[in-house]
Amino acid sequence: MGAYILRRLLLVIPTLFGIMVINFALTQFVPGGPIEQILAQLEGEGDVFQSISGSGGDAGIDTNAGGDSSYQGARGLPPDFIEDLERQFGFDKPPVVRFFNMMWDYMRFDFGESYFRSVSVRDLVLEKMPVSITLGLWSTLLAYIVSIPLGIRKAVKDGSRFDTWTSAVIIVAYAIPGFLFAILLLVLFAGGSYWQIFPLRGLTSDNFSELSAFGKILDYLWHITLPVIAITISSFATLTLLTKNSFLDELGKQYVITAKAKGLADRRVFYGHVFRNAMLIVIAGFPSLFIGVFFGGSIIIETIFSLDGLGRLGFEAAVARDYPVIFGTLFFFGLLGLLVNILSDLMYVLVDPRIDFDSRET
Length: 362
What we know:
CATH architecture of the largest domain: Orthogonal Bundle
Domain ABC transmembrane type-1: 129-348
CATH superfamily of the largest domain: MetI-like
Membrane topology: Multi-pass membrane protein
Number of strands: 0
Main location: membrane
Order of helices and strands: HHHHHHHHHHHHHHHH
Pfam family, one: BPD_transp_1
Oligomer: single chain
Number of helices: 16
Shape: globular
Distance between the termini: 13 Å
Helix content: 55-70%
Radius of gyration: 26 Å
Keywords: Cell inner membrane, Cell membrane, Membrane, Transmembrane, Transmembrane helix, Transport
């Protein structure tokens, strides 16, 4: 097992490097970099995208910040000022040099400072992380709490009316877009047109610091109920059907037939043998599912419920071309995602010690 983990850890380096190379290269062809954003604002032209579209797309934009005055929106600004901006943002160096300097800093977990917020990327991520952890953790737990018992029940009652109508319900829930369901929840339960049961926005109330410990817990749960339900609704179908199919597959295997033939009670066969084997794939997938929700904690859901999380941070950084935030978070979460994939494999061994990854061919 140790050799397998070592191989996987060594593969993290070239994989992460490849991710960064591809994304860095793509940004070199995207118009409207940080310099363009600043120049457009200084010229009073508003958003840089308006400047680009207003020129018919042939403004001669230098996305690599080469140092000349061909920037759209730079007509009334002196070249020395533009060159100073390039040096300040590091665009006076060739892209290859900038990339390797960036990777050297990232290897030391120095993610730099946001171009437009004057805050370090690390502090920005730590500031937004509680919202994303809340959405990721609670939505994953809710999905498992509901989907696993439901999937087991559907496997036991396969083909029954219960199986049929629950399948219809979860498929309909899967088909409803998360943002549309979030709006429906707001209209029904957050004072839209019917009941004012849950708060409209935020993760805590304005008087949160004045509440008792128990009051803070209740206030926190009160605020996260609707966004967690909205972001979890589509994951019920996948996890429920995965659980059901896993149990059906195990129930049809020869060892189950043999155990029943020996006179073992159905309950003992199910929970003593089938349960552990069937739950292997479900439990082992927990880290990946959590990270998936954590990473993509729906930008739209965060916007609808006014939650300032990593989803909105990433979107705003992409719009503003805030490269330190974009690449810093990409490196950190890319590394985290790759390590979680290794953790998922370790979960397989933890659930079923019979699995031996060292015997696999590489």
